[in-house]
Specification:
With about 260 residues, this protein is of the alpha+beta class. Strands 1, 2, 3, 5, 10, 12, 13 and 14 form an eight-stranded antiparallel sheet that branches. A four-stranded antiparallel sheet has the order 4-11-6-9, with no helix packed on it. A two-stranded antiparallel ribbon has the order 7-8. The model has no long low-confidence stretch (mean pLDDT about 95).
Length: about 260
């Protein structure tokens, strides 16, 4: 396990093969299908996002807090975790590229968190699978510009790596890892389920209660709560005073820009 921690620290990601069997993927797809409803605003060009599926779905809550997932996560992310977000990503034939980016450029979080990608269909270079830039998570937040509703990193990857995956394979990577997905040039859809985990010592100041606890002391503890350790730490809130002010100023500037162009 120490080798995995060292690899993650160096590369920023880990890939696990055949974590889930076909029957487990079938059940997961059924739970996702029952839960998905509204499209996320990032959806465009035959690329669709459905978020916060776990919020009202007991089957998904049990799935994302099961021992099989925690055994992969807790050696890297720590024993006490909560889930801040999840999403189904569907890239239909003709689905467009998702530009190179780091996830912290979207959510304005200071701390790195952990992305767990579960392949629901094959991921290939032709159907818009996942590319990463190993080691880029160690550079902190790189410069990004906003293009439409997407954040686009202005630093070009040097030696990107494609992660080939089959249904049931899992990719775990840092939210600071530079990554993107290419267009889908095939006639088959590409599906992935993504869950974002954070340590209970950290804070997401933009997330509203209740918070979904996935694990305590490395063991499943699926439940919603209005408080957790990171939420109660004054230092965490102090660290976000400036980022929250900057976030408000950016939004105010956008609203003013829209108003003067009416």
């Amino acid at each position: 396990m120490d080798n995995l921690k060292a690899t993650f620290a160096q590369q920023g990601y880990l890939s696990f093969r055949q974590v889930f069997c076909p029957q487990e993927i079938t059940l997961l797809l059924a739970g996702i299908d029952r839960a998905r409803s509204r499209l996320h605003q990032l959806s465009r060009g035959r690329m669709f996002f459905y978020d916060n599926l776990f919020q009202k779905n007991d089957d998904l809550q049990a799935f994302i807090s099961q021992p099989k997932i925690l055994d992969l996560l807790t050696p890297i992310a720590g024993p006490d975790l909560f889930v801040r977000w999840d999403q189904l990503v569907v890239k239909e034939p003709g689905g467009v590229e998702f530009p190179w980016h780091q996830d912290n450029s979207y959510n304005d979080l200071i701390e790195p968190h952990f992305q767990l990608w579960i392949a629901l269909t094959p991921m290939t270079p032709e159907n818009g699978g996942l590319w990463v830039q190993p080691g880029s998570h160690r550079s902190g937040l790189l410069p990004h510009i906003q293009v439409d509703k997407h954040m686009v990193c202005t630093t070009q990857p040097g030696t990107p790596v494609f992660i080939q995956a089959e249904p049931g394979d899992v990719v775990l990577f840092s939210s600071y890892l530079l990554h993107h997905t290419a267009p889908n040039r095939t006639q088959q859809s590409r599906w992935a389920y993504v869950v974002e985990y954070m340590s209970q010592d950290q804070l997401d100041p933009y997330l509203r209660a209740p918070y979904f606890i996935a694990s305590r002391q490395g063991l499943p503890a699926p439940q919603f709560t209005h408080f957790y350790r990171g939420r109660l730490k004054l230092r965490n809130h102090v660290n976000y005073l400036v980022p929250r002010m900057q976030r408000v100023l950016r939004r105010t500037k956008k609203l003013w820009h829209r108003f003067v162009h009416l």
